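Subject: design request, 116 residues
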């Protein structure tokens, strides 16, 4: 897990044009713990893995396996959401709920006739 985990962390940081310092600040995982994990390829604690994944807008599963369970579009939305302050997050949730009501999915996940 360890090599893949940190390789995926570094790849996402590079894609998002973020630094290890940014990750440490946002995730509240110490910069030393991040640097040590990358250098030594050591496993992070479950708590730190969760914080890192959340900060990068991805899942622990992706960091561990490299298999994406979140689409690029969903990741883009999550990253934008994570960059909002509390008021912005509340507004975003309200906007999404409004869109959900206007464009509902049927049980199979297809756009319903009313929303098509």
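Subject: RE: design request

Done. Sequence follows.
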């Amino acid at each position: 897990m360890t090599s893949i985990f940190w390789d995926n962390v570094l790849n996402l940081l590079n894609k998002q044009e973020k630094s290890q310092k940014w990750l440490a600040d946002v995730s509240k995982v110490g910069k030393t713990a991040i640097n040590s994990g990358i250098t030594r390829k050591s496993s992070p604690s479950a708590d730190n893995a969760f914080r890192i994944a959340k900060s990068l807008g991805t899942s622990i599963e992706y960091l561990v396996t490299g298999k994406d369970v979140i689409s690029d579009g969903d990741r883009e939305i999550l990253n934008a959401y994570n960059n909002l302050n509390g008021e912005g997050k509340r507004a975003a949730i309200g906007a999404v709920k409004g869109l959900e009501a206007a464009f509902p999915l049927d049980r199979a996940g297809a756009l319903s006739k009313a929303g098509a």
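The helical segments are 2-15, 20-27, 31-40, 46-56, 60-65, 72-82, 86-102.
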